[in-house]
Design brief:
single chain, mainly alpha, 5 helices, 86% helix
Amino acid sequence: MTFPRFVLGLTGVIFLVLGLAFLVAPDGFLGLMGFQVNPDLTLVEIRARSGGLELGLGLFFLVATFRDRWIRAALGAQFLVLGAMAAARLLAILFSGSSDSMMSTLATAETVGAVVGIVAFGQARRVLLNNRFERRRID
């Protein structure tokens, strides 16, 4: 398995796990982050937006892991999504002036995921070009 495929597969699994956590038990998962969730409609929105979005992205990343033509697009999406999440979280922490260990951990994980995604994006081009060259040589 190449590094770009590994990165996509790992990202897909993480998004699926987070999506399922938000979908199945959003109040418990948000409780770990210190949020109080009261109204039922809030849980519906969290399940739909966070659970559904993360599940969809996780599935996209996993499917892309096995499709050569999707790899770079998925790695680009990984970099943009995680980079935007990290930037938004860091700006929100800066503007609010407050954070805790969970927010710092999430910001770090999102930043690392974005950086790893951009590195894998660069490597994916070489891997795909080498694969095409090898296939042509065999034919």
